[in-house]
Amino acid sequence: MNTDERSDEDLAAAAAREDSDGPACQALLARYQQRVWAVCFRLLGNHEDAQDAAQDVLVQMFMQRTKFGGRSKYSTWVYGIAVRTGLMLRRGRSRRKRREEAAAGDKPTAALPTADSRLVLMELLETLGEQDRAMLVMKFAEGYSYEELAAAFEMSVSACKMRVSRARQKLSEQHS
């Protein structure tokens, strides 16, 4: 059976046994390259940052290929890495931006809402905490189930549902 026909989980097991970047590992990286970039872009909202984060995620997928334990779907494991990497990059970017603004003596200005609903949504998402933003993106833009989100964020399903509900409520209140 060639690598295109194998499940992610089968490829992950084969990649863990490979000494280097063998065919199974290469197949997984190729399968997830675009998907990882899309998640990173939705989290970061910037092409360059998304590219940097996606590259970091692919390196982690390779370096940690023996750590996938099969307790969840392989895609959930990968997206967990993508979310953690994206959030870490966002935190660093936010701290850097605050330091630059403080050094320049500038006060951040509020962005004016635009007619484009996607821009308005991106602005609203920016008001959420990093983890809440990531959960909403993965739930509604990527179509993840609550069980998959719970595994990716290492929390219970009920806690995950509560976080998503509260984040949606906060967005609703800000939009009205």
How would you characterize the overall build of this protein?
The chain has 176 residues and is mostly helical. The protein folds into 2 domains: 1-109, RNA polymerase sigma factor, region 2, helix turn helix motif (Rna Polymerase Sigma Factor, Chain: A, Orthogonal Bundle); 110-176, Winged helix-like DNA-binding domain superfamily/Winged helix DNA-binding domain (Arc Repressor Mutant, subunit A). The chain is built from 8 helices and no strands. Helix 1 (8-17) packs across helix 2 (23-44) and helix 2 runs antiparallel to helix 3 (47-63). The N and C termini lie far apart (54 Å).
Features:
single chain; 176 residues; mainly alpha; Rna Polymerase Sigma Factor, Chain: A; Arc Repressor Mutant, subunit A; 8 helices
